[in-house]
Automatic annotation (TrEMBL):
GO biological process, one term: cysteine biosynthetic process via cystathionine
GO terms for cellular component: cytoplasm
Similarity comment: Belongs to the trans-sulfuration enzymes family.
One family name in Pfam for this protein: Cys_Met_Meta_PP
UniProt keyword S-adenosyl-L-methionine, yes or no: no
EC number(s) recorded for this UniProt protein: 4.4.1.2
Keywords: Pyridoxal phosphate
Ranges where the record places region Disordered: 1-24
Name of the protein in its database record: homocysteine desulfhydrase
Residues modified to N6-(pyridoxal phosphate)lysine: K193
Taxonomic path: Bacteria, Bacillati, Actinomycetota, Actinomycetes, Propionibacteriales
Originating species: Aeromicrobium fastidiosum
Length: 355
């Protein structure tokens, strides 16, 4: 009836709501039930839940496919990796979320897959690695190096080579990047991050526009029991209602902080991909100073997660599984929606204290 295609911000606010009936709720209710009355879409809580439906409707509409919620982002990626034939090759970024790479390294060690690590921003290198592969996994921007992949070019080459393409869209969100429109087969999210946006949910999701792949993934979710909770999906829906305003504000803060960090004599370099809420920068005084800096801030929280309304940061090489190509003094800053001047004063204070 509206006569035109709705914008993503309007979809985020309006999708996944109950039918408008007199006396009915505006929001989808939390359904706390382990069993459901037979005759509907499911009759057992491991098979489905009406609260999941609302989350999946919102995310699917935003990404342009059908969404499946999982208990975590790692559970979502594990379900997808389970679809890779035994012994087949998987191409993945050298710099990527540790939980993803750890899974692939373990599967490679067991002979379940052949892992091919690439520099995802080197398109020709990735295209070469696609030959004979079953799956190409893309992060763009990468975590924590913030490299950008040419998703469309890689997807074209991978498809021609017979490989499926999955894109981790956690950092970009469907408001900044829609991988299915660029040729990807799957979009994966850690919905714990920007989608839910309040650091109170562990949740994952996969979106695809392939019905057969959707059915296979849904079966993996049910068989493995990698299902989300009703409360988690309800909170994620509530978070997604404000995704566009949170992202706009945090992104504006990130642009300004990156500009100022790039001009600081205490910073070796600052990386920002041009969109999103994540900055990676290296402290000139070295790794020990970078670690001390993250621990002494007042406004910015020292924490390993990202994508919340609050700004968080950490030195990435404190994690034992981090690739050696990540500088030891690299700080990953997840910019929140606080006042940008308060954030900058906090950064200046701790930079001066450790330099």
């Amino acid at each position: 009836m509206h006569g035109h295609e709705l914008s993503p911000s309007t979809i985020a606010v309006g999708a996944g709501r109950p039918d408008r009936v007199p006396g009915g709720p505006l929001n989808a209710p939390i359904t706390l039930a382990s069993a459901l009355v037979p005759g509907g879409g499911s009759e057992y809580g491991r098979q489905g839940n009406p609260t999941w439906d609302s989350f999946e409707a919102v995310l699917g509409a935003l990404e342009g496919g059908r969404a499946l919620a999982f208990s975590s982002g790692v559970a979502a990626s594990a379900a997808l990796f389970d679809l890779v034939p035994i012994g087949a090759a998987v191409v993945a970024p050298r710099h990527a979320y540790y939980g993803t790479i750890a899974q692939l390294v373990e599967r490679d060690r067991r002979g379940q897959v052949e892992l091919r690590l690439v520099d995802i921003d080197d398109t020709e290198q990735v295209i070469t690695a696609c030959q004979g592969a079953a799956l190409v996994w893309i992060e763009s921007p990468t975590n924590p190096a913030l490299e950008i992949a040419d998703i469309a070019a890689i997807a074209r080459a991978a498809t021609q080579a017979g490989a499926a393409v999955a894109v981790d869209n956690t950092f970009a969100t469907p408001l900044r990047q829609k991988p299915l429109e660029l040729g990807a087969d799957f979009v994966v999210h850690s919905a714990s991050k920007l989608l839910s946006g309040h650091s109170d949910v562990i949740l994952g999701a996969i979106v695809t526009d392939d019905d057969r792949a959707f059915a296979a993934l849904e079966k993996r979710r049910t068989v493995l029991g990698a299902i989300p909770g009703a409360m988690e999906t309800w909170l994620a829906v509530r978070g997604m209602r404000t995704l566009h305003v949170r992202l706009d504000r945090a992104e504006a803060n990130a642009v300004e902080l990156h500009r100022r960090l790039s001009a600081s004599r205490h910073v070796t370099y600052s990386r920002y991909p041009g969109f999103g809420t994540i900055i990676a920068f290296e402290v000139a005084a070295g790794p020990a100073a970078a670690q001390k800096m993250t621990e002494q801030s007042d406004v910015i929280t020292y924490a390993t997660s990202l994508g919340g309304v609050e700004s968080t940061w950490e030195r990435r090489r404190r994690h034992p599984g981090e690739p050696e190509s990540v500088p030891e003094g690299l700080i990953r800053l997840s910019v929140g929606i606080e006042d940008v001047e308060d954030l900058w004063i906090d950064i200046q204070n701790v930079l001066a204290a450790v330099s």
